[in-house]
Structures are given as C-alpha cells and as structure tokens.
Design goal:
By secondary structure, the protein is an all-beta fold. It contains three helices and 54 strands. A hairpin with a 2-residue loop joins β25 and β26. It is globular.
C-alpha cells in the first residue's frame, strides 16, 4: 500500500533541513501539465559546499496526481517523488553535491484520468545543512562485474490453483511456511473500510486452508484492514502485524498456532506509517531469550525505520512481539529518506539486516550488522545500487530483495520505463553489485508486482505478473469502465529460476505458473491514490512466493478474471522439477477422483478454547467428476457419515458444494472465467435440495466484490447414496440460462459449510484439494 497524508507536506524538510547558507538559491515556480506532457524544467543553482536540495510541488486541484523529478547538471535523474496525489516533495542530500545548475520538473502520473491541462505551484531551496550519517545519503554499490546471462525455457510443473478462501476476496496476499512442518500461513487485508485483515492457515502443506477466526473475520481485535505480515520464530510463536486505520501499526502474538492472539493496537504509532515488514533473528541457540523480531516500515514524507522486539517467551509474556523500540544507533532519526521498500531480510549467515528501497533511478540498500542478541544500537549505512538499465527507475511499487544460504544478496526491480524485470547480485554483503541483468523475455513484455526468494548458494527465484501487451500498466483499459476492452489485455503469473545467480554467468529459466490468465486490463500503481483516479487496484500492490520445507516454490496470488472482477485468493505449488534447495520433485498432477483426509472437518477450526468438534456429516473423504452423458456433468461428494445432515453449530443449514472456474462470459458480455458450482443444502437435517449456479457477490462499494455467494439458483437432479451425494447438471443451461461453460473446469474443489442464508459469511468446515477436469470424453456409469 502506498500512503501519503497531505497534512504532512513539508515534514521531511523541517526534519532534515534546519538552516541554509546565506545566499542559497531558493524561490517559487509554477506551470501546467497534461496527462502526457511534463511541465518546464525549473533551474536550481548549487554552489560549492551546499549539501541539500529541497523541492515541493502542489497541483492546483489536489486530486490531480503528479510526480516530481530532480536532475543533476549532467541531466541524470537523481530523485523521483511519487507517493500519491499532491503535493510531492524531494529532499536530496549528499556531502559532495555537484555544483552547477540542477533542475526539477513536474510530470503527470502515468495513467492519470484528468483529460485537460492542469496547473501546479512549487518551491525550491538549497542549503549547507550537515548531512546526518545515514540520513538519507548513500554511496558505493558498483564494481561487481558484468554478467553474461543465458536464457532457457523453464521446465517446472505447477499444480492447479488451490482455492484459499471460497468466499472472501483479499488483495496483496503474503505466504509463510513454518520451517520443518506442514503448517502454511497466508495473510492479507480486506480493506480499511472493513477494519478486517485475514489469516488463513493450512495444516497439510497448503492443500486446503481455513480462516483463522471463529466468526469468519480477522484473527485479533480491530481496527485494521491495511498492510499485513506474518512470521514465526523457532519457538513456534507467530507474529502478526496490521496497518491500523492508516496511521499506526498494531502487532499481535499467538503462542498456540492461531487460537489466541494478544494484541498491542499502538505498537508503532506515528503519523502516516506505511508498508511494514517482519524479519526474525532466531539467535545462535534454540532458546527464546536470544530471539529478536525486526519490524521495518516508512513514515510518509519523513523516512524509513527499523524497530525491534524480543521474541515471545510464552502466552503470559507482555513484551515479546508487542513492545517495540527503535533498533538504530542513530535513533530517533530515520535510516534514510522516505521510499517504497522491499520486504526486510535477516541473513543468518552474515547476521546482516537488509532493507532495499526505491531511490530515483536505482535501488538503495540499508545494511546493518546485528551482533548476537543485539536489538538496539545497530549501526546502519546505505549503499547505492547500479542504475536501472531500462531508462527509468525501480518505481513499479516494491523492489525485491533476497539472500541465499551462502550469504549472497540479490536485489530485483521492474523498470518504470521499459517494464522489464532486472536483478543485481552481491557477494560481499551488499557493498558492491554486478551490472543489472534483464530477467524477462517475451511474451512477458510488461511486468508488475515482483517478488524474490533465494535458496541454496547461487539459486534465486523471482515471480511477477506479466502481459504480452506493450505499454504502461496504468494506461491499459480499466475493467470497471470497459470490461470488453480490458479482456484484450491478459495478465499471467510468471516465474524465473536463476541458477549461478551470484556469478557472471547466470542461467535464467522463465515460465508461467498460472495455467490461465489471472487478470485483465489496467493495473493501477498509485496505491490508495487509485481511489482518487478511479484506477484498477483490485489486487492492491503485490503477491508473494515462498519455499516449503522441500524447497518447492509456493505462490499465493489473486485471480480477478471472474464475472465479479474480485481479488479471489489462490495458491499454486511446484509439483515437478528441481527445487531451490537442490531436491528433485516428482509429485503427480492432481485429478479426479480426489480423496481427502478424515477428521479435519472441525468447526470452528480456531477459537480461544481451541478447535470445535469434527462434523462427520461434513467431513469430506472424496470428490469425483465424470460425464453422466455427453452433455451432462456428474458430481459425487462423499463424506465420513451422512446418516445425519445437521448443520454445524451456530448455522441453520448444512451445504455440500463443488465449485470451479471455466471460460465463459461476464455480466456485460465480456470474456470471464466464471465461478460455477453444484451443491446440496439441508435445513435443520431435513432431506437436501439440489442446485447449481454461478456465483453472486456482495459489494462494500459498487464494483468492489468482497463476499462471494452461492445461492440455489437452478434446481437440478440429485440423490443421496449412503455417504455420497450425487448430482447431475446439464452443461447447457444447467448453471444459468444462456451462460456458456468452457471445456476445462479449473480448480475443482469440494467444500462443506454451514450458512443461514446464501448471503452471509459461511461456517468454513472442510475442503478438498483442487484439480482440473476436462468436459467430454467417456460417459455413463452408476448414478450412485
């Protein structure tokens, strides 16, 4: 999430610039811009001994989104201000600021919606204020050599997408897998208007997920709904952080795998804090006393910070994970200038903290060495990475950073000009860096939402979304305004495994990890400013990849291609090929019939008193699809014991349902991968009614899909055969009049739940693993 509160304009200037030289250059400027043309250059004269340039530009209409650029006397872009709407501010400092004529320039944000020219005013000043160590200047960064990459086609095999949540949409998901276990955690926001952010947990390595809540909402007390992160230490304590009301950070700790959460709602309370990340130092021993959790974030218009807390010692610990202090030896000063920053990383090999942020035309890396048991007084310094080769800078939201098991460091970014992915590596703890290497190859022509993880020494995995269309993501048709036009721009999930990544001869293997498009049209890069510009920010700002205990790649991502264009939440795993830790995978591709473990249908799954009782009537053991005839789909759902059909506690109705996506048409006739379903519903344990349909969605604001619903739209033929529910649905007309169903059914998943009516939040009881199914082929067989 990108945040800028207009009331904070000028805070950075007041914070960093205390006085200026007599006779320093200062003044005001004004001009106009259009959606495609920048304003005139404004010269600024810098004399010997000056260290600081400040500039502020304000659009006459505050909602008009602008950017502000600073160029040195040679014409090189040195700083790029782009936080939200208006004003924009630059504070550029260097102890050896080049004398001569510098220039600032106001430009429109790419993809802005204002069609007519609009005006702005601004001020600028130079000064000789001393540069405080580490705030915000940086140096070094070159000298790592120039790699010669080899490009090959990736040969990994990925699974069909697992449905993480069949009801709730959720932007910018993160995933975390407990080391050495099959526990898999996912978290993300539902929006500050809802004050809810979610955690989903899997106990079977991500084959099925359940929401960490007894009421289907957030795991801890509100408010929230903003940026989130989740982490675990070697004691099994889990740490959750949420952006509370866009003004402070609330942190929570669980010592019992998510049943109970203790929360400090004002753990870090600063005006306009934004995009926080966790990193865990488990210390040199297996005890809790040497554990430290680090929390990195930025305060808009001020700077970046890293805080720390001791690891939790147990459920009665009032400090660990809850009480935070500034980790820097230079506290309370920021570590560097305000910026959009990558996930913080702690490298246990070198015991370094790394925090990579966008800075003009390059990435800036903050580095701090952490002594064993150290939590505060850490000395940080900043290193400038090489310039982005694409003619722009790393301004496509977040850069990416990763460290491998050999202590090598990798930074990656998407260039704002050519929209390619680049990466650079360092073998000396981030002090020198290789010439950037282009990662993306056609058809991945325009990239968005980059993420990185590294495995064994020299192995790097990068993931992003991409389309084969050329252009800026903000300039593509917006689905909300032009759904037919938007579907002409198809986005896919891409992955590249880079071997010998820290050498001068890397091999880059790129491929798709999604089997169908996952988004159409515009992707808005303005953060919450997309609300002002009416841009498409359905997926928020990123998705994530991680590794499981075998080193297999795991993605959690959004798919918006349904008729609702909501941020539907999915997970994909690597099935075959070499992993990031050097293992070879040969897992089978899931298919029908799909079996499911018994005894995992508790309701609730998580609560302050622990999991509820298993519901045998809702405990799925198998789902199977077949063709009852060439034109009729047959779905069979088997449970542990169907002698009773009572709903789970607290709900009036029990539901058995199988859902999938298939290529179809949307509500405006556009291409869409609709969500279809086949189900049975029993009220109070009575004989079930059988139905099919295509989902509806409850919106919080028009077009903002939040809760997917499964109403009993079309009556269909069904029967109960012992512990199996068998349902037949005509392919044509069985799911809704005039709605076509494509040949491939994606992410087929059986679900059981309880509900009071089709539009409430369902009791999340059980789910099967996902598979794909091709319609057609052999037909017939027993109905039971």
């Amino acid at each position: 999430m990108r945040l800028k509160l207009l009331a904070l304009a000028g805070v950075a200037t007041a914070f960093l610039v205390a006085s200026g030289t007599a006779g320093a250059d200062s003044g005001a400027f004004s001009g106009s811009i259009t959606p495609t043309a920048c304003g005139p250059l404004q010269p600024i004269t810098v004399v010997a001994g000056e260290t600081t340039i400040t500039a502020v530009a304000t659009a006459t209409v505050a909602a008009n989104d602008i950017t502000l650029d600073l160029y040195d006397p040679g014409g090189a872009l040195k700083s790029h201000g782009d936080t939200l709407t208006s004003p924009e501010e630059i504070v550029y400092q260097s102890p050896d600021l080049t004398p001569g004529v510098w220039n600032v320039q106001v430009c429109p944000f790419a993809g802005g919606v204002v069609a007519q020219p609009y005006t702005y005013t601004g001020t600028y000043a130079t000064s000789d204020v001393p540069v405080v160590d580490g705030v915000p200047g940086s140096g070094g960064g070159g000298g790592g050599g120039t790699p010669t990459p080899r490009y090959v086609v990736g040969k990994l095999v990925f699974s069909p997408a697992t449905v993480v949540d069949a009801q709730r949409t959720e932007g910018e998901p993160l995933n975390f897998l407990d080391p050495g276990t099959d526990q898999y955690w996912e978290s993300g926001p539902w929006g500050t208007t809802t004050q809810n952010s979610f955690i989903h947990r899997s106990t079977d390595n991500g084959l099925e997920f359940h929401i960490d809540s007894p009421v289907g909402l957030r795991p801890d007390l509100p408010p929230g709904g903003g940026d989130t992160d989740i982490a675990v230490d070697d004691q099994g304590a889990h740490y959750f952080v949420d952006l509370e009301g866009l003004v402070n950070l609330g942190t929570a700790v669980s010592n019992d795998d998510g049943d109970n959460w203790r929360k400090n709602p004002v753990a870090v309370q600063n005006a306009a804090v934004d995009r926080q990340w966790y990193a865990v130092d488990n210390g040199p021993t297996g005890a809790s006393v040497d554990n430290t959790v680090f929390l990195a974030f930025h305060e808009s218009a001020v700077g970046t910070y890293i805080y720390s807390t001791p690891g939790s010692t147990g459920p009665t610990d009032p400090v660990g994970g809850l009480v935070w202090q500034n980790a820097s030896a230079n506290a309370p000063m920021p570590l560097a200038a305000d910026a959009t920053c990558a996930q913080i990383r702690f490298d246990k090999v070198t015991r370094n903290l790394y925090y990579a942020c966008n800075e003009g035309t390059h990435v800036r890396l903050t580095i701090g060495h952490v002594a064993s048991g150290q939590r505060t007084g850490i000395v940080f310094h900043n290193v400038t990475l090489p310039e982005s080769p694409g003619g722009g800078g790393p301004g496509h939201l977040f850069p990416a950073l990763a460290t491998d098991s050999g202590g090598n460091v990798y930074a990656a970014w998407i260039d704002t000009n050519d929209n390619n992915v680049y990466y650079s590596s360092s073998t000396d703890q981030g002090e020198s860096w290789t010439t950037p290497v282009r990662v993306t190859m056609p058809p991945a022509s325009t990239a968005e939402f980059l993420w990185a993880q590294a495995g064994t020494a020299g192995t790097l995995a990068l993931a992003w979304y991409a389309t084969d269309a050329q252009g800026q993501p903000d300039s593509f048709p917006n689905w909300a305004d032009d759904p037919v036009g938007a579907t002409g721009i198809k986005w896919w999930g891409y992955e590249a495994t880079i071997t010998n990544a820290a050498s001068l001869s890397p091999t880059i293997a790129q491929q798709r990890f999604t089997e169908k498009p996952m988004h159409y049209g515009q992707i808005c890069n303005q953060g919450i400013g997309c609300t002002v510009s009416s841009g498409d920010r359905t997926m928020a700002d990123y998705f994530a990849l991680n590794f499981d205990r075998r080193g297999a790649i795991r993605f959690v991502y959004n798919d918006t291609t349904t008729q609702h264009h909501g941020a539907h939440l999915y997970e994909v795993r690597q099935l075959q090929g070499k992993t990031a830790t050097g293992k070879s995978l040969k897992d089978a591709v899931p298919k029908t019939p799909m079996t499911d473990a018994t005894g995992d249908a508790q309701w609730p799954h998580y609560s302050p008193t622990g999991a509820g009782a298993n519901q045998p009537q809702l405990d799925l053991t198998k789902v199977a699809l077949s063709m009852a005839s060439p034109s009729t789909l047959r779905v069979k759902m088997t449970v542990a014991n169907l002698s009773g059909m009572l709903p789970p506690p607290g709900k009036a109705k029990a539901v058995w349902l199988t859902r999938f996506q298939a290529l179809s048409t949307g509500n405006s006739g556009e291409e869409a991968y609709r969500i279809f379903y086949v189900g049975a519903e029993s009220t109070g344990g009575l004989a079930p009614q059988f139905f099919a349909g295509s989902t509806t969605c409850t919106d919080t604001t028009p077009g903002n899909c939040k809760v997917v619903n499964y109403p009993a739209t079309m009556a269909v033929q069904g029967r109960v055969c012992g512990n199996t529910i068998s349902i037949d649905v005509p392919r044509d007309g069985g799911f809704g009049v005039g709605i076509p169903v494509g040949n491939t059914l994606y992410s087929v998943t059986a679900l059981t739940f309880g509900r009071d009516d089709p539009n409430d939040l369902y009791a999340d009881v059980d789910a099967t693993h996902a598979f794909d199914f091709a319609l057609g082929g052999a037909s017939g067989g027993s109905a039971c």
